[in-house]
Design brief:
Number of helices of chain B: 12
Order of helices and strands of chain A: HHEHEEHEHEHEHEHEEEEEEEE
Largest interface: A-B, 32 and 53 residues
Radius of gyration of chain B: 21 Å
Number of strands of chain A: 15
Helix content of chain B: 40-55%
Oligomer: heterodimer
Distance between the termini of chain B: 37 Å
Distance between the termini of chain A: 53 Å
Strand order of the largest sheet of chain B: 8-9-10-7-6-11-12
Strand content of chain B: 15-25%
Strand content of chain A: 15-25%
Helix content of chain A: 25-40%
Shape of chain B: globular
């Protein structure tokens, strides 16, 4: 499978999916063993293709460490085993980021302000790499990482406005919430806040809706201007929501909701289950992934993220009111 | 017609109830045979699991064991029988038998919401006791609505912590319970063993895992061992195969377990799938139904895991004979009648209900 095919508009998604499936069952040993153990080699489609649990990036080596240009690691505390994503070709990640953003936003209209630790301190964060990529792509030179623990300089806001650009304030949910509490500032009315998830903090846990409300209030924007990005270390593509709770994926990424009790089975729209993702940009690792997130899909393919999937422990003597 | 002896003290009830349990099991009662046959025919439990449960009751519930349980126990002054409703889960055959015995011993009146998964055998026992007419037995049924308006004084059941809230809400709505109802709720899910290869006990280990398809809260879900976990896994596979050959499981392997096994194959995690159980080497976890983990660890590691698991662990076994603060592994599926689910003696609890 040639990398150029990932983003090729003229080839139907199902066709690319089958080619990717064949390529990865031949070239990615972990995925091959998975498919072999399931005995699932028959021509797959979006709803039936075996999705490898994302923990595989933590429990095994996916991709080719020796030929990787870079590797990304999930965040975690000391002593925690982290997921590692070896990226053989950063050009594919760059293309996925820029094409993906441009699919949903006119990137040339925006200046990206990243409220995260800088790239040099965190070279193995896929999120920071992404923001770094967006900053570098801005020809005005106005995009930058902001200093943590400080307000957005008013001068910066004025410069961006003077250049006729819009602000896209990017950051993890907990960081943006801290900023909102400590350094609220009126942003121009056409600014967008892009939160990237991570709502669990050491201090509190809030719903996405409540967080959006708080961010909109702190930065003087309508709630519709608070958008979300859904991505993870294990993916090279991202989905976005435009202020509603519904996420949309770019054309080379598809989301299905799988039955937690039988992850080979896709669930019908509006049924809660595990979020499964097909990300063709993961050509050199694994494109077919089952997340640990709970979600639902709409008929048009958009999806909602409803938090972590935490199954009830029903083992043992357990009186169930409707079963017994 | 001769008047039957009516017990008045807990010790007298222990003697009589022990005799009745033995009589129920000793005589060739067609109704019991019929109950077993129907349970098997309807695919509710396997014949071997039912026989195992009945054999254990026969061996462990008699005058002597009940006297031992009743020893030093007294009823409160001015005792007045209360209504005790037991909600029976249907994960194992005869689950909740101990609650019935405790209720009858305590002198309170038993009410039972029987499980639709185990509707015949417990009913046969209760019919037998009711027919004898010397213990207080109220209504027993598989239909919860039969208990609407009961406003029972005491409620006994086992469930998950979140599920228990749902149960309580529903029972309140139906006025099966009211705010004054005393409750004994058990929430433990599974058990843990510390197992050292050189000390033997392989048959007991297999029994503790595969009996009842791992569905009991006394079933082992986590093994800690000082040995190579992969060595324990291989030997357990052999012992498990022997067990399964004699005691084939009722239910086929689930898609969830098949999927997890495939994942283990993918990441080269040592594991095997036997019956509908998955045994794997890995981090200890009680969360996945039908999954047993084997981890290298000291006795202290095991104790720390149990501590961190809060109320989820029912029992901690070891194959070291007589080790304090552990139960013998050989008793995992055959505990004495006076064992304490979730650390609470149900008889003691019932005797103290005022």
């Amino acid at each position: 499978m040639h990398p150029e095919l990932i983003f090729a508009d003229h080839i139907p998604f199902e066709e690319k999916l089958r080619a990717m499936f064949q390529y990865q069952t031949e070239n990615e040993p972990v995925y091959r063993r998975f498919v072999e153990a399931l005995g699932a080699f028959d021509a797959p489609d979006v709803d039936t293709i075996p999705l490898l649990p994302v923990e595989a990036f933590r429990d095994a080596i996916i991709g080719q460490p020796k030929s990787a240009e870079i590797y990304f690691q999930s965040s975690g505390t000391t002593g925690m085993v982290r997921s590692t994503h070896y990226v053989k070709d950063t050009a594919i990640y760059r293309e996925s980021i820029l094409k993906g953003m441009n699919y949903f936003y006119l990137l040339k209209d925006f200046v990206v302000l990243g409220y995260t630790p800088g790239y040099s301190e965190n070279p193995h964060s896929s999120l920071i790499w992404m923001i770094h990529c967006l900053i570098n792509a801005d020809e005005t030179g106005l995009s930058c990482f902001l200093r943590l623990g400080e307000s957005i300089p008013l001068k910066k806001i004025e410069e961006i406005q003077a250049a006729g650009k819009r602000i896209m304030l990017f950051g993890a949910a907990f960081g943006l919430m801290d900023m909102a509490e400590q350094f609220p500032v009126q942003l121009p009315e056409d600014a967008i806040i892009m939160e990237t998830g991570g709502m669990k903090t050491h201090r509190r846990e809030v719903s996405r809706d409540a967080m959006h409300e708080a961010l909109a209030h702190a930065f003087g924007l309508p709630k519709a201007n608070v958008h979300s990005e859904y991505g993870m270390t294990e993916l090279l593509s991202q989905a976005f929501s435009d202020g509603s709770m519904w996420f949309s994926a770019p054309p080379w990424m598809r989301v299905t909701i799988r039955n937690p009790e039988n992850p080979l089975q896709a669930l019908s729209p509006e049924t809660e289950g595990l979020i499964g993702i097909i990300d063709l940009a993961n050509i050199h690792s694994c494109s077919f992934l089952l997340t640990g997130d709970k979600g639902i899909c709409a008929k048009d393919g958009r999806f909602q993220v409803l938090g972590r999937y935490e199954p009830e422990n029903l083992r043992g003597c357990n009186f169930l009111i409707d079963d017994e | 017609m001769m008047n039957k002896f009516k017990p008045h003290t807990i010790q007298e009830r222990a003697q009589l109830l022990g005799e009745l349990v033995q009589t129920w099991l000793s005589t060739e009662r067609p109704s019991l045979k019929n109950a077993i046959t129907k349970t098997v025919e309807q695919g509710l439990f396997t014949a071997h699991d039912i026989q195992f449960a009945l054999d254990h009751i026969k061996a462990s519930v008699g005058p002597e064991s009940l006297q031992k349980w009743a020893l030093d126990k007294k009823q409160l002054k001015g005792f007045n029988p209360k209504s005790v409703l037991c909600l029976h889960a249907g994960n194992l055959p005869l689950v909740g038998f101990q609650d019935i015995i405790a209720t009858l011993l305590s002198g309170h009146r038993y009410f039972g919401k029987l499980s639709r998964k185990d509707p015949f055998i417990l009913k046969d026992f209760l019919d037998f006791i009711q027919e004898d007419n010397r213990f207080l037995v109220g209504k027993y049924s598989t239909d919860l609505t039969d208990f609407s308006g009961l406003k029972t004084d005491v409620l006994l059941f086992s469930g998950s912590e979140s599920g228990s809230i749902e149960v309580e809400n529903r029972l309140n709505e139906m006025e099966v319970i009211n705010p004054k109802t005393k409750q004994l709720i058990r929430t433990a899910h599974a058990s843990v063993v510390w197992f050292e290869d050189a000390l033997g006990g392989w048959e007991s280990l297999a029994e503790s895992i595969f009996r009842y398809e791992g569905r009991g809260c006394r079933s082992v879900a986590v093994i800690f061992t000082p040995n190579e976990p992969e060595d324990i896994l291989e030997r357990l596979r052999i012992e498990g195969e022997k067990f399964i050959q004699i005691n084939p499981p009722l239910t086929p392997v689930s898609e969830e377990i098949r999927f997890r096994f495939a994942y283990n194959q993918a990441i080269e995690r040592a594991s095997f799938n036997l019956g509908n159980m998955l045994i794997e080497v890995g981090n200890p976890s009680l969360k996945k139904d039908h999954v047993v983990t084997i981890s290298r660890g000291s006795m202290e590691d095991a104790r720390e895991f149990i501590k961190q698991s809060g109320n989820a662990v029912q029992a901690f076994y070891s194959n070291i004979e007589g080790l304090i603060q552990t139960e013998p592994l050989s008793e995992a599926q055959t505990p004495p009648i006076y064992w304490k689910p979730d650390g609470v003696d149900p008889l003691e609890f019932l005797l103290n209900v005022d």
